[in-house]
Amino acid sequence: MTGPVLILGGTAEARRLAERLAPARRVITSLAGRTGAPTALPGETRIGGFGGVAGLAAYLRAHRVVALIDATHPYAARMAANAAAAALDCGTPLLRYDRPTWQPKPGDKWVEYDDLIALAAALPNLGRHALVTLGGADLSALSGALGMRLTLRAIDPPARLPDHPDLDVILDRGPFDLAGERALLSQRGIDVLVSRNAGGQATRAKLDAARDLGIPVALLRRPVRPVTASATEMEAVLRWIEDAAPIEGE
Ligand code: NAP
């Protein structure tokens, strides 16, 4: 019997891929376990870290994984690196199911940074009140954004807040629409937006709202991840899996 496809998940893309694959073949989706009660996924689910490269390689061998799909979030750099190293070690075909980056449009005032320390230090030059939308990232570097107000938006209360004297937290979960984002920025007097380049539609509206209102965006660039085969379209991912790991008997 053909072994399973292992999807490294935690994203909408991973869920959609499991939905497409599960009726026809064995699929295991791996979640980091950050969410207390994740919604059920088609196919099998495993939860929790593997224990680094060696742990993932042992898992790939023990479960006879025929193809590994890295469908983690674009900022999950450690998991992406572990996946590349373990796949190489085991000879397991690996594909990254990636999300295209957002591209600036005319009128956008984006300033891009490689790391949060540099971004925080530059932020007071861009505005007086920042809306910070950085997901579950470690926000401690934001204590360097001196002399300004920070409003953090997060899905869950941040585990550790930056040490900053003028800080507010809004708990909210996307998708967000343009009208709502415009209202939030205007009503709170936000004059600079802090964002990652996550890609996708669910959280894109804040960038459009910032452009409409002439607000600059301090954008944290994506982390470097190992070069691997990658695809951004579902149909290309499905074709790649069929080529890399055809179902036996077909
Ligand atoms: P990370 O920094 O790259 O990963 C840290 C460690 O968490 C990994 O070394 C691994 O532990 C474990 N891990 C990560 N993803 C895993 C997965 N899918 N299955 C099993 N173990 C996993 O990643 P992160 O930024 O903490 O993100 C964790 C998960 O949340 C990912 O699945 C990602 O897709 C999802 N997510 C992240 C973001 C984000 O903003 N980063 C946003 C939305 C969803 P071991 O070394 O022990 O194997």
Describe the 3D structure.
The chain is α/β, with parallel strands linked by helices and 250 residues long. It has 2 domains: 5-100 and 225-244, NAD(P)-binding Rossmann-like Domain (Rossmann fold); 110-220, NAD(P)-binding Rossmann-like Domain (Rossmann fold), CATH 3.40.50.720. The chain is built from 7 helices and 12 strands. The strands form 2 sheets. A 6-stranded parallel sheet has the order 3-2-1-4-5-12, sandwiched between helices. Strand 1, helix 1 and strand 2 (27-31) form a beta-alpha-beta unit. Helix 2 (52-62) packs across helix 3 and helix 5 crosses helix 6 (205-213). It binds NADP nicotinamide-adenine-dinucleotide phosphate (NAP).
Instruction: Give the spatial strand order of the biggest sheet.
Output: 3-2-1-4-5-12
- Number of helices in the DSSP assignment: 7
What gap, in angstroms, lies between the N and C termini? 12 Å
User: Which residues sit in consecutive blocks of at least 5 with pLDDT less than 50?
Assistant: none
Indicate the CATH architecture of the largest domain. Answer: 3-Layer(aba) Sandwich
Task: Give the SSE order as H and E letters.
Answer: EHEEHEHEEHEEEHEHEEH
How much of the sequence lies in strands comes to: 15-25%
As a percent range, the share of helical residues equals 25-40%
Might you state the CATH topology name of the largest domain? Rossmann fold
